[in-house]
Structure formats: structure tokens, C-alpha cells
């Protein structure tokens, strides 16, 4: 496998996406360019909104006349707004005929359903992949990250889909974190192989077979708490289950954070205690700051697409740019492609799904 | 509906169950008796282990010669250990022929799979219920509780099962929290009715129909974060999804708690800050103390069975006793029965499942 890094990386950025648009994306792009002296950006959006970026070094502005709103139905993004910043940005990672793509990865904070549908339509899926998946990282007790997929692109996943997610997740972690043989856990409701639904049990069998032939480092079943324990590098699950787990964790974190604030602002004594504890609390807060984990990968497409949280601020959006840059520089697309070929060559051929009418994305985020 | 409280409540306690057995259950029972002057207990276990309880007021000791271990397979609990403390305790809530049951609810910290299987075998399910469910509460931002079910007894739930869970959950919250018409949310990956798998969409239709005929207060779809926001009183989900959500929350809470400890013990300055912040941190800790939420209800059986966490300490086990007492005193069993009759009378008859060979419980906890 070719593990040399790409010397020149260009990212295409949908500057209009997300809750805040250019007021967040432009400062993030500026900061990103400053911290990555070798990187190039293609900024996509309405010309007037991007006027501030004129003359920035290593930067090209590409005009797009439309914007996909956060609440636009997938059909509108796909069929009506053909000159949207989201779609034009995604198109930058599609290779020209017999040529190179303008960019090696695309980043958007736009509506997840629209981004997945447009990416799937414009870029198509890789051979051997039925359904692209959304992968993101969560912090763990080992002070590392656990990569979880799928987080909501697919419901009712079959065992073959889960195997494909495991292969793609392994390629992602190998590329971005430099781990040669990352471990994979299958999210279940008990460690024993007999637990879970039929499709989960079958997925366990496929994953064990892939591990036996040396293509995957399969740990076995894991449970919800293992995501935060860091038991495995990767946790594979159905998109419905992954989305519920992610949002449950977000909800709990938000509640605990509010409770801590309430406790420290209860009266004058607790406020004094807060002043004394502030440096410690800030250190804790930075450690679990969800903005640091921003940037989900849409895996299984013939091009790299990264999704920032819609509510991301400039710091969070810059993290998504960093993540896309690292993935592109480490040739994630080639790695996913190679791993799929290696692993799936020995597996039963999955049924092909039509690509011209991508289904609406299962989850909103 | 008869909402008068029961004047005399007796709980049957499996004193041998859990990681700690009588060293935890007996002190908890003693404290419970002191705080509930009208309550009676039937303590079940090995005679020598329960010798300390001889002569306690309002207390009967019933001997059982065997103990279901935490790692015993369900088959062992069901077919080999017929004189286990778990089974004898469950049998106390089964009415004698043409008579009363010895106890109105049973509490055990034993192995969840064994408890569900034995309860299902000894007590049978209520008419109209295909599968019993496990319901427990999680804290929410409104300083209340959200009741979630199923937490792992069933995987691959149909729409009808989810409707049954909604009915049983409503009866539980009405009985224990005194809310006449508690709201029900269907756990999904988006608020829109078109989201989710086929069975979830069908469940949405059944729940809307039940709401339209006045039998349920159905709010609509909710997402994982709504559990902790307290958007609805009850959240209904497949046991696989519920178990993953519960364990994910447990894992995140454990990680955050460890991180806070690490930050406050980093050096002499942070330790000083900890001393100052201690009262505030302790107040926070008490507020989110998971021991306060101990005691899951096994709903849908012809008798009330409550499951304590296996690792519960005496304080947590006492909370499970309190919960079982409140449910029994408020005639939870009658309420579940009445609500099922009311709601399901207008629904398509669910397919009956055989009761003599209860399937192994899906999840371990």
C-alpha cells in the first residue's frame, strides 16, 4: 500500500453552509491557511459574501449562486439548487475526465442529508460499497479517540454493510491516526457472540472471518460504555443505533454541563468556589470540548467529503478543515479503496444498489 | 380506574442476589423497614446467611437452598436451580390458587437474564402483552426523571411491541409519579414522522392512532438528547437501542467523573481548589448520583418484579426497594392491566408467543 503523503493538498470549502455561513467559515479558513503553509483552499459561495477573501494567499474563490438552507429537503438540494455552494464544493473533488480533481477533499457545515445525497449523486460510491457511512470520533478515557460509524446515514443495516463500515473505519483510523492495524468492535448489548439481533450475529461472523484471513483486527462485541472506555479504536454499528448513542451522549454532556454551572452559581459562596476552581474547570472543559472532535467523514464515496457540525464556531470549523486536510494528505481515499479490494475480494458480493436516485439520508444532525 | 393505594404492602426480597449478597441487601432492608413503618418484607435466601435478620419486626424469612450466580446461564437459573433465592422470591408474588399472593412486589439484584426468564416462567405475561420490557428512569434537565423502555429485554421489536411498551410505561409513570396523562416519545433519529426504519414508522402510526382515541399522550418522535432534556415523561425504544443508549450514557458519565477527579488531583494547587470546591462538587455529585435511580421495573408480567443493579450498594438497593414499594402501593399491576385492556382493545390483536420456553434475555446488565 502506498503510504507516502500527498505534498500538495487543496480543500474545497462550502463557505455558505452551517448556521452561521461566512461569518464562521471565512475566519476558520484564514486561520487554517496560516497554520498550514503548504495547503490550498477553494472557497465556494456567493461572490459578495466571499469578497473579504479576495487576495488571500493560496486561495481561489469559486462562485456559486445558490445556498442549501439547513431545513431544505434533500430533494430541493438535489434537484432544484444545482448551483448551490454545497454542490459546487463537492464537485471540486470529482476528477475531471482523464484528469485530476481540483481538490482532494471537501468540507461543508451544511445540512447532513443534503450533503450525503449530493455527494452520493455527484461522486458515486466506491466499488464494493453499498452505502456510504458517516464516521466521527468521540473522546475516550485513554485520552485518545474512538471512531464510531455509522452515525445516521443508514438504518436497517445488514451484516455486509457493517463489514463494509469496519473496513472503511479501519482505513480512516490508519490514515488519520497512523495506526497500522486498528482494532474494531461491533456494538452490541453484551460481549458474548450469541447476543443481539440476527443481523448483528451475522455481522460478527463476517468480521471474525475477515479477521481470520488477516484483513481486519476484530476485537469482538463491545457495549455502549466501551466507546468512552476506548476498548477499541473503531466501533461499528447500524446508523440508527449510532445516531441514538451520539445524541444521547450529547444530551447527557449538555445536562451535566448545565448542572455544574447551576451548582457553581447557586450563591455567593459557590461563586467564590468557582473562582478558585476556574483554572481546573477550564482545563477539564478543554479536555472534553466537543469542538475539538468536529468533522465527520462521509466514507465510501469516490471522493473525500467532511461534514462539520451545523452550529460550529470558527474554532470548531477549523478542526473540521484540519481533519479533512490530514485525511487527504494521508491519501485516505486510496487507502479505503485498497482495503475494500483486499477485504471484500474474499467476501460474498454485496447486492448493488442504484446510484441515480440516492435515498434521503436517514438522520438529520 | 381504582387509584386508591394499598394499605398493606409486602415486598419479597432476593437477599442473595447481586455482586454483594446479604452484606448489602440486609442493611438495605433494615433501613427500608425503619423508613416505611407500614411495610412488610419477606427475606429470601440461605438460612445461615439471613440469621442476622431473625427477630426483625414486620419481617419473615423464607429459606431457599440455592443461589443464581451472576454469570449463571439463563438455562441453569431456569431448569437446574429450582430452589434459588431468585426463583423463590419471584414466586412470592404469584397468587395462590383462588387466593392472594404472599407479596405485592419482588426485588432482586440478580442476573437480569435469569430474573426475566424466571419471572416470565413463574408469573407469565399479562394478556395483550407479547414481551415484557425493562423500564428504568434517567435524570433530566427539568430535575425530574425520564422513564425509558425497553432497556434490553427485547431486540428486533415490532411496532406492536413498541405500542405495548408505551402503554406499560404510561401506567408506570402514572402509578409511581402520580402523573395522570404522562407524555410518550418514540426514540428516533429525527423529529419528522418520515424518519427511521419501517418498524419505527409503523410504531409512530400506531401511537398516533392510540393518541387520537384518547388512550395515550403521544408527543411524537424524540432523539437521544431528549432523554436528558426531559422532553417527554416516557421514551419508548427497541431493547437493543435502549440498552446501547443506557450504556453509552453510563460510559460517558464514568469518563467525565474520572476526568474531573484527575483534574482536581493534578498538583497541589488543584488539590487546594478541590478542597474549596468540594461542597459544590458534592452537591453536583448527589444530584446526578446514579444510585438514586436504581430499580428497573420488569413490566408486562402478572406480578411486579424490580431489578436492582448487580453492583448496588446498600443505599442503591434501598432505592430499588422504595421504588418497588411505591409501585405496589399505587397498584401498578392493576393500572398496567387496565390500561392494556383499554388501549389494546381497539388495536389489531398481537400474535401470541409461547410462554413455556421463555427466550434467553437479549441483554446482560
Automatic annotation (TrEMBL), chains A, B:
> Could you state one GO biological process linked to this protein?
phospholipid biosynthetic process
Q: Which InterPro entries match?
A: FA_synthesis, Phospholipid_synth_PlsX-like
Q: Write out the pathway annotation from the protein's UniProt entry.
A: Lipid metabolism; phospholipid metabolism
Q: Which domain of life is it from?
A: Bacteria
In short, the EC number is 2.3.1.274
Catalytically driven reaction(s): a fatty acyl-[ACP] + phosphate = an acyl phosphate + holo-[ACP]
Q: What is its main location?
A: cytoplasm
Instruction: List localization entries.
Output: Cytoplasm
Q: Which terms are listed as keywords in the entry? A: Acyltransferase, Cytoplasm, Lipid biosynthesis, Lipid metabolism, Phospholipid biosynthesis, Phospholipid metabolism, Transferase
Question: Per the record, which residues fall in region Disordered?
Answer: 346-365
- What molecular functions are annotated in GO for this chain? phosphate:acyl-[acyl carrier protein] acyltransferase activity
One GO cellular component, as annotated: cytoplasm
What subunit structure does UniProt give?
Homodimer. Probably interacts with PlsY.
What's this protein's family per the entry? Belongs to the PlsX family.
Q: Which NCBIfam families does UniProt cross-reference here?
A: plsX
Q: Give the function comment from the record.
A: Catalyzes the reversible formation of acyl-phosphate (acyl-PO(4)) from acyl-[acyl-carrier-protein] (acyl-ACP). This enzyme utilizes acyl-ACP as fatty acyl donor, but not acyl-CoA.
Protein name (database record): Phosphate acyltransferase
Please name the gene that encodes this protein. plsX
Amino acid at each position: 500500500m502506498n503510504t507516502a503523503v500527498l505534498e500538495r493538498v487543496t480543500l474545497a470549502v462550502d463557505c455558505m453552509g452551517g448556521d452561521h455561513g461566512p461569518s464562521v467559515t471565512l475566519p476558520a479558513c484564514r486561520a487554517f491557511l496560516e497554520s498550514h503553509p503548504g495547503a490550498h483552499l477553494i472557497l465556494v459561495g456567493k461572490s459578495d459574501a466571499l469578497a473579504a477573501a479576495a487576495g488571500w494567499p493560496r486561495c481561489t474563490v469559486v462562485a456559486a449562486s445558490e445556498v442549501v438552507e439547513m431545513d431544505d429537503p434533500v430533494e430541493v438540494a438535489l434537484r432544484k439548487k444545482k448551483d448551490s455552494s454545497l454542490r459546487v464544493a463537492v464537485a471540486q473533488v470529482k476528477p475531471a475526465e482523464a484528469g485530476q480533481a481540483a481538490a482532494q477533499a471537501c468540507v461543508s457545515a451544511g445540512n447532513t442529508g443534503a450533503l450525503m445525497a449530493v455527494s452520493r449523486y455527484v461522486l458515486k460510491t466506491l466499488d464494493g460499497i453499498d452505502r456510504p457511512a458517516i464516521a466521527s470520533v468521540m473522546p475516550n478515557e485513554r485520552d485518545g479517540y474512538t471512531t464510531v460509524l455509522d452515525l445516521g446515514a443508514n438504518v436497517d443495516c445488514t451484516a455486509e454493510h457493517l463489514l463494509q463500515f469496519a473496513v472503511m473505519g479501519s482505513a480512516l483510523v490508519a490514515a488519520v491516526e497512523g495506526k497500522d492495524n486498528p482494532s474494531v468492535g461491533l456494538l452490541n448489548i453484551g460481549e458474548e457472540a450469541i447476543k443481539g439481533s440476527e443481523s448483528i450475529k451475522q455481522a460478527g461472523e463476517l468480521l471474525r472471518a475477515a479477521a481470520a484471513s488477516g484483513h481486519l483486527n476484530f476485537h469482538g462485541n463491545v457495549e455502549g460504555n466501551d466507546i468512552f472506555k476506548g476498548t477499541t479504536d473503531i466501533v461499528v454499528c447500524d446508523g440508527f443505533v449510532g445516531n441514538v448513542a451520539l445524541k444521547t451522549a450529547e444530551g447527557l454532556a449538555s445536562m451535566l454541563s448545565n448542572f455544574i454551572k447551576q451548582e457553581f452559581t447557586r450563591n455567593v459562596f459557590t461563586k467564590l468556589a468557582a473562582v478558585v476552581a476556574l483554572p481546573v474547570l477550564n482545563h477539564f472543559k478543554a479536555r472534553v470540548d466537543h469542538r475539538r472532535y468536529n468533522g465527520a467523514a462521509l466514507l465510501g464515496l469516490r471522493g473525500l467529503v467532511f461534514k462539520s457540525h451545523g452550529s460550529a464556531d470558527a474554532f470548531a470549523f477549523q478542526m473540521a478543515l484540519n481533519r479533512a486536510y490530514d485525511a487527504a494528505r494521508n491519501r485516505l481515499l486510496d487507502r479505503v479503496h485498497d482495503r475494500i479490494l483486499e477485504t471484500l475480494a474474499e467476501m460474498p458480493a454485496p447486492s448493488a444498489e442504484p446510484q441515480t436516485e440516492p435515498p434521503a439520508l436517514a438522520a438529520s444532525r
